[in-house]
Write a structure and sequence with these properties.
Length: 622
């Protein structure tokens, strides 16, 4: 693929992906464009001041120049500017002599260089808020998207892969794409100004030069053609290695118990070696850009030197040797921006590979959507009804729930029991719309949950799960999580009801004690009671208990069960039970088997039936 077509394709992809982020920083881009145009013009002017110095040194200027009135049209301006510049140089020589004139021109070059470098610095300084702002915006967008995506998305993606996209891939975007922003803004301006200057000096030589450039461009393009594909594979292998580290940290106890250290080490080394191999290929291709472009640039300069010399010696050119040297200086100055653009092209292709992986999160479809004008709900006034509900996961043909009919009246406690995999947790996840049903209706006070705002729906519901999920923060902040402006008194009152206040006060800093990662500094019973206190403080009218005591010892279970009974008072409760003894007093018990309700009734009624529930009860009684 020719480099111009290749670059155009990726530049178009680059601006399609990054354009929305640039829109937030228009003033910085405009400022950088202005300052870089000024820098390019000053650069040409500082080079142009060398020409009269060369004429003085080599004594090649025998022509006498007369001042020409300025005419502000494009056709004549360059000739007038050239003539008057030489006129002023000759005038200074006549007054002060060649030696002093050289000093004056040298001072002029120094001053122009000071202005040029100041403008160059200004351009880079204006790009910095753009760079750091874009990376910040991407990270914020990813985190915001992660919070908004349904739980089903994360059940299909590996945690290590998601972490890699949020960290390593975003760092790659920062290092590859945003690092290239200065080049993308500055270098096209430099190239445009330089080429305009070259055409003004000699259009014949410039056309010849432009005919030589595509050969250079084609060869460089061949080097970078597969860089993007290799970069995607490189990031995938890195994700695999991080996923394995994450799995190892989570399963270290099992690895040691089964003496599987060697197996896990071999598995990790295999992925790590594959990552190294791909990284070598990417790095070698990227590092080839500079030496190849350096060599081809030198070859081009030699060819241009030959053709320029031919034009001067044959008398077919209007410029002399000193102007030809100025031409070569400008041409050589054009090569560096071209090389930088080729490097930026490789970097952008590598960065786009990471951006594609990030976009798998940013562009992931959220199938939990609100209607255009959702209704707000303030509380539960009557009942929750699941009517002929069916559910299956996306990309699966197997129905997890089949023809479910459940009614939960306000203030009632219902329980869901059944073997693992019968669909209990999936069923309760439908109420707060963590998943959407695929058939039937789920109604709250006669209104379909799909017509309610998600925020108001979930504000009605409190959750206490089998695994108490705590954050690496203080006890106070974990209890007050999700409740704005909670006071110390309110938090303590919730902790007392949850039987948590006493052990909290025994901790070194009381309610300001940090619980550690996922609450690792607390026992299972303590974590569960803090999560119950969190639900009590929220004070929801609907409570969902997902096997909240199944992982606890007898003493902790008694304390937690007592806290749950306090929490369940005057609330509508849906409880998933592993230990049937904890739900004997439920108003209705629904027995699920393979996604269907096979029995329902009170504990006594179900025991009397002698069916599936009685079998479960008898097995736990043994």
């Amino acid at each position: 693929m020719p480099i111009n077509k290749f670059s155009t394709k990726y530049m178009k992809e680059f601006f399609n992906i990054m354009g929305k982020y640039f829109a937030n920083y228009k003033k910085y881009i405009a400022g950088a464009l202005f300052v870089n145009i000024l820098s390019a013009l000053l650069n040409v002017a500082s080079f142009g001041a060398i020409v009269p110095i060369l004429r003085i040194l080599f004594k090649v200027d025998t022509e006498t120049y007369e001042f020409m009135p300025w005419e502000w049209n494009i056709k004549d301006f360059s000739e007038i500017a050239k003539n008057n510049f030489f006129y002023y140089s000759q005038s200074i020589i006549e007054v002060y002599g060649p030696s002093t004139t050289l000093l004056i021109l040298g001072g002029l070059i120094s001053f122009l260089t000071l202005l040029k470098t100041s403008a160059y610095f200004g351009g880079s300084a204006l790009i910095m808020p753009l760079r750091t702002g874009i990376v910040r915006d991407i990270r914020c967008d990813i985190y915001r998207k992660i919070l908004s995506l349904p739980l089903s998305f994360f059940s299909e993606e590996r945690k290590g892969d998601i972490l890699t996209r949020v960290t390593t891939d975003v760092n790659e975007i920062d290092g590859s794409i945003t690092n290239s922003l200065d080049t993308l803004i500055k270098n096209p301006i430099l190239i445009t100004v330089y080429i305009g200057c070259l055409i003004a000096i000699s259009w014949q030589l410039t056309i010849f030069t432009i005919l030589v450039v595509p050969v250079l461009a084609f060869i460089i393009g061949k080097i970078g053609k597969s860089l993007k594909a290799n970069s995607i594979l490189q990031q995938t292998k890195l994700s695999d290695s991080i996923s394995q580290i994450e799995e190892t940290l989570g399963g270290l106890r099992i690895i040691k118990a089964f003496i599987a250290e060697k197996k896990m080490q071999d598995r990790f080394e295999k992925v790590n070696n594959e990552f190294r191999s791909i990284s070598n290929r990417v790095a070698i291709r990227q590092s080839a850009a500079h030496p190849v472009s350096e060599f081809l640039g030198t070859v081009m300069m030699v060819i241009v030197l030959w053709f320029g010399g031919y034009l001067i010696f044959s008398g077919n050119s209007r410029f002399d040797a000193s102007e030809f040297m100025f031409y070569l200086v400008i041409l050589y100055s054009t090569l560096q921006p071209l090389k930088d653009l080729s490097k930026a092209s490789y970097a952008i292709q590598k960065g786009l590979a990471s951006m594609e992986r990030v976009n798998k999160i940013l562009l992931a479809e959220n199938n939990i959507k609100e209607v255009d004008s959702p209704k707000n709900i303030e509380g539960l006034n009557d009942r929750i009804v699941l009517q002929n509900v069916y559910f299956k996961y996306e990309n699966s043909d197997r129905e997890v729930l089949h023809d479910i009919n459940i009614t939960v009246k306000k203030g009632q406690t219902i329980a869901l029991v059944g073997q693992s995999g019968s669909g209990k947790s999936t069923l309760v996840d439908l109420v707060p719309r963590y998943h959407d049903i695929t058939g039937g209706e789920l109604l709250i006070d006669g209104v379909n949950v799909k017509e309610l705002s998600i925020r108001s729906l979930r504000s009605l519901i409190g959750n206490v799960n089998q695994e108490a999920i705590l954050f690496n923060d203080t006890v106070f902040n974990n209890i007050a999580f999700g409740v704005e402006n909670a006071t110390q008194e309110q938090v303590e009152a919730a902790a007392r009801i949850a039987n948590a206040h006493d052990f909290i006060m025994e901790m070194e800093n009381g309610y300001q004690t940090n619980v550690g990662d996922r609450g690792c500094r607390l026992s299972g019973g303590q974590r569960q009671r803090i999560s119950i206190a969190r639900a009590i403080l929220k004070n929801p009218p609907i409570l969902i208990l997902d096997e909240a005591t199944s992982a606890l010892d007898t003493e902790s279970e008694r304390l937690v069960q007592d806290a749950l009974e306090k929490l369940m008072t005057s609330r509508t409760t849906i409880a998933i039970a592993h230990r049937l003894s904890t739900i004997k007093h439920a108003d209705i018990i629904y027995v699920l088997h393979e996604g269907k309700i096979v029995e329902q009734g009170t504990h006594e009624e179900l025991i009397a039936k002698g069916g599936y529930y009685k079998k479960l009860n008898d097995m736990q009684s043994l």
